[in-house]
Amino acid sequence: MFKSLARSSIIKSSSPLVAISKRLYHPNVIEHYTNPRNVGSLDKSQSNVGTGLVGAPACGDVMKLQIQVNDNTGIIENVKFKTFGCGSAIASSSYVTELVRGKTLEDAAKIKNTEIAKELSLPPVKLHCSMLAEDAIKAAIRDYQSKRKATVLK
Amino acid sequence: MFQLLRFSRIHKRSISSFYELFPKNFPNGKPVWSIDNNKLRKEYRSLQSKFHPDAIASNHEDNDNKNLSSLINKAYQTLKNPLDRSQYLLKLIKNIDLSNEEVAQNLTQNDPNLLLTVLDVHEQLEDIDNDFENIKEIELENKKRIMNIEQNLNTLYENQDYDKIAKLTIELKYWVNLSKAIKEWEPRVKNQ
């Protein structure tokens, strides 16, 4: 869905709508929203892929974040996301994928929502979008770890 | 004229819920779930014909009327829409504020099945290039889902089961968002 939105904002970059949204959103949010990083899906049936699926029930937004982990080094080698929600939620998840790529699981688990909110200058009413992104990466790590435990025990 | 003024003053001072603004629909002013949309629209229009600033040529109480007119408008938009009405009732009756993420999160606990279904339909929608038949199918399915929830809410409100009402209202929000996404869908241009 946001693909088409992103496309239309690029094409009609001089439209009044974008002019308005530019006033409401920080440039970093606009940048991630119009040019989101690492959009897509990984094969969730793979044993080295962890999937985090979280929702913001008050807004009705959903966010899926997936990590592909090197089983030997514990480093996140690939990461993809899909977010259906507002611009801040999309930007938060896009930014968090940039943050975790190349990190160890341990370091990725330390990411705090405040870091995301600061980078994107999210206003107080949008802070929960950054919390959603933090929840998503944590859920993805948990999913990977529970899968790994299951395979090791076999 | 005096009557109009009195009306606006009374309501500005003492209104305790949106329901009181529509005395023909809600004679005792009590908040209820079941409403008659046609009847409500009728009363709304007749009120706006009295209070809308455009309807009154010159009036010293222009601002009073403007405020009342926009209040009536806000009340009508909230009450006619099932999602907004349910959110409003939960806040009014049980002080449950579903617009607060923490409150809503505690109620749903990230229900994985619901999230999976929501994500799945959003992804289906995203994968459609320009097949209008498929869009219609998704749209119809979603309308059915929403109608179903609204019917369930009828029973739950009769039984005053507010915990379940809150959960179902949250679910309704996800599907209403989906219907917005369906409306915004546009065929993908080739070579992109």
> Which pair of protein chains has the largest interface, and what are the residue counts?
A-B, 22 and 32 residues
The largest β sheet of chain A comes out as: 3 strands, antiparallel
Q: If you consult CATH, what is the topology of the largest domain in chain B?
A: Monooxygenase
Helix content estimate of chain B: over 70%
The count of strands of chain A amounts to: 3
CATH first level of chain A: which class?
Alpha Beta
Q: Write down the overall mean pLDDT of chain A.
A: 86
Organism (chain B): Vanderwaltozyma polyspora (strain ATCC 22028 / DSM 70294 / BCRC 21397 / CBS 2163 / NBRC 10782 / NRRL Y-8283 / UCD 57-17)
GO cellular component, one term (chain B): mitochondrial matrix
InterPro entries (chain B): DnaJ_domain (IPR001623), HscB (IPR004640), HscB_C_sf (IPR036386), HscB_oligo_C (IPR009073), J_dom_sf (IPR036869)
Domain J (chain B): 17-92
